[in-house]
UniProtKB/TrEMBL annotation:
Record family assignment: Belongs to the peptidase M10A family.
Protein name (database record): Peptidase metallopeptidase domain-containing protein
GO molecular function: metalloendopeptidase activity; zinc ion binding
Naturally occurring in which organism (per UniProt): Potamilus streckersoni
Residues that coordinate or bind Zn(2+) 2: 23, 155, 159, 165, 173
Residues annotated to bind Ca(2+) 2: 94
Peptidase metallopeptidase domain boundaries: 39-199
CDD domains documented for this protein: ZnMc_MMP
């Protein structure tokens, strides 16, 4: 998964990779292709509702900052697909975001500071959970410590939309968390999400269609 040269030895490079913070969703089998991998299902619709049922209690980020980071994480995928996301404050939404520690209501308990940062379920379950024992930060502040909420949210949203881990280094859907000051989807991420949902309809196309009618 980390594209390390196969040496058969537990060397320093391997140990270093094993210690890096990562996503809690398990990596798939060794026989997977060397590019994007999709889960067994996708959402049968393109307008998805979302809510944050539990905000971070330990972070210094305000609720507005947390919501904004998650919204940017959704938009990075919406930019390349027909997917649209609608925020709601109450009730059951398609995508449910929450922060929790250790046992937090599912079978996959969090491990405290470091290690697993977050996890998510594949469609159409829509659960995206963040480990609230991590130091959640935004932007440059996350360069040397903690975890950048927008980047981690964007990765987990990829799972919640139906993408599994990729072996392509530099892709958002690689399992290891890497800080970036300017997060962009890799062409592998874009190929994956467009394989599931297609490309974004261009405005111009629908305009001309309207004129011809
Ligand atoms: Zn992941
Ligand atoms: Zn969970």
């Amino acid at each position: 998964m980390a594209s390390l040269p196969v040496t058969g030895e537990l060397n320093q490079e391997t140990l270093h990779k094993m210690e890096q913070p990562r996503c809690g969703v398990a990596d798939i089998s060794e026989n997977s292709p060397l590019n994007f991998v999709t889960g067994p299902r996708k959402w049968p619709k393109t307008l998805l509702t979302w809510r944050i049922s539990t905000y971070s209690k330990t972070s210094k980020l305000t609720e507005f900052q947390q919501r904004d980071a998650i919204e940017r994480g959704l938009n990075i995928w919406a930019k390349h697909t027909p997917l649209r996301f609608q925020y709601q404050t109450l009730g059951r939404a398609d995508l449910n975001f929450k922060f929790g520690v250790r046992y937090h209501g599912d079978s996959d308990k969090f491990d405290g500071d470091g290690g697993v940062l977050a996890h998510a379920t594949l469609p159409t379950d829509g659960e995206i959970h963040f480990d609230d024992e991590e130091m959640w930060l935004l932007g440059q502040e996350a360069q040397s410590k903690g975890a950048e909420l927008y980047i981690v949210a964007a990765h987990e949203i990829g799972h919640a939309l139906g993408l599994d881990h990729t072996k392509v280094q530099g892709a958002l859907m690689a399992p290891m968390y890497v800080y970036s000051s300017n997060l962009q989807l890799h062409s592998d991420d874009i190929s994956g999400i467009q394989f599931l949902y297609g490309k974004r309809f261009s405005r111009r196309k629908s305009f001309w269609w309207f004129l011809r009618k």
